[in-house]
Amino acid sequence: MCRICGEGRDTIEHMLHDCKGSKEREESVTEILNEDGRGVESMKEVEKTRSQSVTDTLVATDWYLGDISLQKDILFMLQRSQKYMCVYVGSFGILSYEFFLGVIKMSYSILAMLKS
Questions:
Q1: Which of 5-9, 17-21, 38-42, 88-92 ranks highest by mean pLDDT?
Q2: Domain total for the chain?
Q3: Tell me, which GO biological process terms does this entry list (predicted)?
């Protein structure tokens, strides 16, 4: 049983994708974005929150009971999640999945309009 939400299996996959606790944290991240109007400072806070979410999820598992290869991989993930990385795109802000998706959608819309 998951130690975060009390449901499901206590696995990394559950905690990263299906756990209610991680979904609640993701909803709070969305609220931060909506309140601040997606400013650069709020995006930095979101990335810090996401990194902390990964760290909390990894620490909550019994990763130390796995084989050595798994332990090394998770230790690397723990170390990497302590630092957040931001890639700035000029005056547009921070490059993120949402930003990339918006650019692709806009590009496709313009292409479709030009073809018609």
A1: 88-92
A2: 2
A3: signal transduction
C-alpha atoms less than 13 angstroms from C-alpha of 26 in its C-beta half-sphere: 11
Pair 4, 48 in one domain: yes
Q: What is the pLDDT of residues 105-116, one digit of tens each?
A: 999 999 999 998
Kindly state whether residues 40 and 64 are assigned to the same domain. Answer: yes
Question: In angstroms, rounded to a whole number, what is the distance separating the alpha carbons of residues 76 and 53?
Answer: 16
Task: Evaluate whether 25 touches 49 at the Cβ level (below 8 Å).
Answer: yes
What's the pTM? 0.38
Same domain, 93 and 62: no
Helix 40-60 / helix 20-36 crossing angle, nearest 10 deg: 170
pLDDT tens track for 73-105 = 888 888 877 776 677 777 777 777 777 888 899
* Domain containing residue 111: 86-116
